[in-house]
Amino acid sequence: MAMLLSGFGLGLGLGLVVVVVLLSLNNGADSEYIEYNTAGRIVPGKINVHLVPHSHDDVGWLKTVDQYYVGANNSIRGACVQNVLDSVISALLEDKNRHFIYVEIAFFQRWWRQQSNTLKIKVKELVDSGQLEFINGGMCMHDEATPHYIDLIDQTTLGHHFIKNEFGHTPRVGWQIDPFGHSAVQAYLLGAELGFDSLFFSRIDYQDRAKRLQDKTLDVVWQGSKSLASSSQIFTGISPRHYDPPDGFTFEINDVSPPIQDDILLFDYNVQERVNDFVAAAFAQANVTRTNHIMWMMGTDFRYQYANSWFRQIDKFIHYVNQDGRVNALYSTPSLYTDAKHAADEKWPLKTDDFFPYADHPNAYWTGYFTSRPGLKGYVRVLSAYYLTARQLEFFKGRIDSGPNTDALADALAIAQHHDAVSGTERQHVAADYALRLSLGYKKAEKLVASSLAYLTKSGSSSGVANFQQASLLTNGCPLLNISYCPPSEAVLSGGKSLVVVVYNSLGWKRQEVIRIPVSTDRITVQDSSGKNVEAQLLPISNATLNIRNYYVTAYLGKSPRETIKYWLAFSVSVPPIGFSTYTISTARQTGPGIAISSVYTSEESIDNTIEVGQGNLKLIYSAREGKLTHYANSRNLVTASTEQSYSYYSGNDGTDKDPQASGAYVFRPNKTFPIKSESQVSLTVVRGPILDEVHQQLNSWISQITRVFKGKEHAEVEFTIGPIPVDDSTGKEITTQITTALKSNGTFFTDSNGRDFIKRIRDFRTDWDLQVNQPVAGNYYPIQGKFYLRIDPLGEGAKWRRTTGQEIYSPLLLAFTEQDGNEYINSYVSTFSGVDPSYALPNNTALITLQELANGKVLLRLAHLYEIGEDRDYSTLASVELKKLFRTKKINKVTETNLSANQERGEMEKKRLVWKVEGPGDESKVVRGGPIDPEKLVVELGPMEIRTFLIDFANIRVFGS
């Protein structure tokens, strides 16, 4: 019995008034231990609420990846992933019915290294029982707009191999809950081709979500590839809200949701109230979802640092909700939820194309990050190509775990694909951390590349080893070649010494390209490995380039450049597939034979009204008076078009009283468009020569541009230098360039999906809903990849150039330098090499995107068809690759086809994959895919847009030579 004094008052002049209320609590009985029944299972005929405990742990964002892991720098954000994992594992071991999913393997791998063998055994038991399940399984939850598809494959593969090696498991569900829009490549390549049965995410356009809620179309079957059609489909679930639970059901230690209070000796007993809240939220979600299964994402960013705070409440809800009986609650995972959805035997709406752009309210289009931190984006792309090349060279030399390898670069590139890394949406110190990791990874890989080239160039008669310095835009020998700084090529050669340039080609076909390196004299000659003079051209270096060179070399090295460079040396090279060629640059008493010094003049010197640029089929015509491009003409395909280029900027909106949303790293909210006019009459500087012509333009003090037209190419290359962007007017600026032609596009254009498929776009139009246009500029921006190249082809003929050049841009030639006395190097070392049969090259529609020796000695091979179905009359056909000729000096013992991440055999994956029904007639078109490999012929077939992955066992021999 207890007495509660609930009212007491003094009535002045009225006497003392006392109100006493006596309450009986539990008739004197003590509170008892409650054993919660958490063994909820699916109940047919009821709404089944699948409760999925999770923590979304960004692999860097406001803090660095390591700071997030250890809980450092908590003044920015109180987040410690180490606590999450420690706490969750402990909570799972307390109750076998509890489940938890984990996504970011970059964090889990850090945690796993620190655990005792005893705990590792227990964690493996949790994984085997399904209590702890790895979802997605990549090193991070990658961005879907700005990475290249090869990077997405690589980072996912890295995580999947860790899970396979340590736990023997293969993830089967995609979990991209936070990226800011979703790509078609994610759907079919990192969905269906991995063997995933489903994919879940949260962020879609607010107008799209509203319609899907109304139509009950949040769950779809997504067909991301028109080429692979129904074989590329994956069940896709879109959350009805964000990736957190319904309002009132978050239970981190500082959250404000009311917990279930079921101790009758305490105040605020609220079991029935909270059960009612749960049931109401469940019915509300069931009303917008097909089938009687709904999923609640029980967690959000960096939750479960004190896991019992969550699990205690979920235990109680399952216990009391199931006692109530109106709905059924259970611990679940996305895999269990997927199986339940599939068992319902429902037909689902079919989704094609992608989910870009993404807006979460009328003035918040998340298209700003397509260009945020372009320097980091470029760094990631350059090192991605370097990693591809380094793995090839590591394969030729042979992987040595104790020596230099590519592992550190792989790790750095993997976490750089995170949706707050390459996206450019992280804090500055975090961006610097990503860049540092990439730099350190590169330095280790560079040693491997140098030693591999030394190995391949050493012939049987050679007693020495070449000491290579490399220059693939970012290398030890020429770390700043992109700003025209390259000590090996700038050095003044004397005493009969010459510079040896080894040019490596990572593509599977022969390449004839022009390379450019800075030199400090015009008295040079260039020869190929047979001693034949090579035609070359010396081009002046622009003032803008020199200014950048001097500024950044000093900033990078702490001292000014030693040499004063005078020219770019440009010469044509011919390089065999997956191999190298060698060239020598020697000093001479005078400019050597075949070396042309470019003629230079300005538009002011021209007596004509127009200036024609280009030595081959392509001509660009400029107005001498206005100093700008006016026409494009190709004499081979007879395409002519009026063409203009101009620069503008969008001023950033700071927000309004009605809507405070400002333009920034995530959101593009332009205020107004302003043309960028030149500060004076623009004078074109025209550079002509036998290999290429250049047009130099200085628009103002912070925008300059060089347009190059190569004699042997039919496209223009535009290199622009922008910045520092002036902000002294306190206005943020988005710089754009416009190409204006007379082509009638009717508002239709195409953008690529992660450098792979192309997707049709129509201005101010969406295929899935009637678009309410609020931001006509930001709402029509889409992610594209690559540099600025210009070419116009007749309708239906552009794919050949676009696909081939796209591969060459992604995988630039790698340059390596060494010096020789006399002809010492040429006489003693292998000067040309190809990893494939001398008479063989990959088909023009096929790319080698992975060649890597794994730690277990097996070799990982990926081949990709480059064309979509119907894209080109010649190349959108079945391609064939002869493995015996691809590996000309090695005996193949066994070839095993696997899924995309090589964590299971392809046949096993296909047997396990769930087949989903779609509404309507579906796509009945025949999918062209390559057939099984004959173990004797060893020929791989690939259909349009198909990527095939193999693990190869070779006989234990290594013989490489010329």
Automatic annotation (TrEMBL):
Its EC number is 3.2.1.-. The keyword Hydrolase applies. Transmembrane segments: none annotated. It is an enzyme of class 3 (hydrolase). Residues 1-31 form the signal peptide. InterPro entries: Gal_mutarotase_sf_dom, GH38_C, Glyco_hydro/deAcase_b/a-brl, Glyco_hydro_38_C, Glyco_hydro_38_cen, Glyco_hydro_38_cen_sf, Glyco_hydro_38_N, Glyco_hydro_38_N_sf. CDD domains: GH38N_AMII_LAM_like. It comes from the Eukaryota. Gene3D superfamilies: 2.60.40.1360, Glycoside hydrolase 38, N terminal domain, Glycoside hydrolase family 38, central domain, Golgi alpha-mannosidase II, Golgi alpha-mannosidase II, domain 4. Binds 1 zinc ion per subunit. Pfam families: Alpha-mann_mid, Glyco_hydro38C2, Glyco_hydro_38C, Glyco_hydro_38N, Laman-like_dom. Keywords: Disulfide bond, Glycoprotein, Glycosidase, Hydrolase, Metal-binding, Signal, Zinc. It catalyses: Hydrolysis of terminal, non-reducing alpha-D-mannose residues in alpha-D-mannosides. Residues 364-438 form the Glycoside hydrolase family 38 central domain. One of its GO terms (molecular function) is alpha-mannosidase activity. One of its GO terms (biological process) is mannose metabolic process. Its cofactor is Zn(2+). PANTHER family: ALPHA-MANNOSIDASE. Belongs to the glycosyl hydrolase 38 family. This is Alpha-mannosidase. It comes from Trema orientale.
